[in-house]
């Protein structure tokens, strides 16, 4: 019945609505016909609640389309589950792309948001506020206590991209004021790495060497070069006396879950010291407990510590916030007026982040991330498929690499009730809530296995 109403409402939509809504609806109608004759799925797009169409139609009419989205509308979440308009339950292995570390609708996060919103939300950076100072202290002290990075100051932003943008500005400023006389305008080079992702603003995009993201917006910021990841021998050639910063993810997320080697980070650190460049770790996706330690770089020795670390995604469990953490060497070169933001460091985000950080940076919590990350990895390794090439992981950031593009697997899993995302290099990425249970992991694995069988059917039948 629902299926029929969906198909007929699809037809009327086609006639009436904007290009994007019509395209989405057309895709659903084609799928509807296909699904009608083949197997029923627990979460088939064609069985979506009819309200789904109206919501998508309105969205597409008024919102710029820069994302290819499936025809599903989520209304709420709880823990590791999301629910769509028709109350269908989905197990979420994406956690808002490594954001909802404590799961959806966490009661304590909700309580702090409510309490702080009743107290004060924003008063700008013209004035001090209590939660920002407390969060800064907590971040610096917990970082110093848990590793070798001698962080001393924080600058709060609203997102990961902005944190990286600020970090790059700080590096250029430091180079300018420390350069040999006459060299002040020559030391502006930035080295980033193939398959790295640092954001989409002009500076962050310049450090993100994906032609798909960069090409439409050329020319970008001058001075950026892109070196091969984990290639120790190539470092000297890319990091030169004209380099002011090297920016790197200790574990590449969007790039396909690639873990840096100790030798590589050690060489980067020593080469940065040699040429007077700053080493920036982008831990926006891999940091804050995701790998089972507070910071991903803490899996490496003291010879691999950065000068600047950027963070964002899980810091306030979904409330937008980012931060740049720097050593004294950097802080002492930055003066009033060098950088700014209206919203960054607002009391609302900082109050939430303080609580989230306290809960994540807890030995029991991190042990659990390690244990469940290991379990997740073993489960992935136990999947038998000729299409699977490799499992890569550290804690709760995992990649399942295929021999072919696994993009269709995302829909095959979703239509069975499991949310997953892709990464570069034929990889499916898993970045669930850090407090996901073993039982939930196992439930997701059962769905994933069925989706992979369907993917094999599809792929092998096409190539046969
Ligand atoms: C490693 C890394 N850096 C930077 C960013 C950009 O962060 P945001 O989307 O919060 O601006 C992302 C986002 O996916 C990321 O994964």
Verbal overview:
This protein is an alpha/beta fold. The protein has three domains: 1-62, no CATH class; 110-361, Type I PLP-dependent aspartate aminotransferase-like (Major domain) (Aspartate Aminotransferase, domain 2, 3-Layer(aba) Sandwich); 363-385 and 428-464. The chain is built from 16 helices and 17 strands. The protein has helices spanning 2-16, 19-37, 51-62, 95-98, 107-119, 130-146, 160-178, 202-206, 211-214, 235-238, 262-275, 328-331, 347-360, 363-381, 407-414, 438-463; strands at 74-78, 81-84, 89-92, 153-157, 189-193, 224-227, 243-248, 251-252, 258-259, 278-282, 308-311, 322-326, 388-394, 397-402, 418-419, 421-423, 427-430. The strands form four sheets. It has a seven-stranded mixed beta sheet with strand order 4-12-11-10-7-5-6, with helices on both faces. A hairpin with a 3-residue loop joins strand 16 (421-423) and strand 17. Helix 14 (363-381) packs parallel to helix 16. The model is unreliable at 1-38 (pLDDT under 50). It binds pyridoxal-5'-phosphate.
Overview features:
464 residues; EC 2.6.1.11; amino-acid biosynthesis; alpha/beta; four-stranded mixed beta sheet; seven-stranded mixed beta sheet; 3 domains; Aspartate Aminotransferase, domain 2; N2-acetyl-L-ornithine:2-oxoglutarate 5-aminotransferase activity; binds pyridoxal-5'-phosphate; pyridoxal phosphate; globular
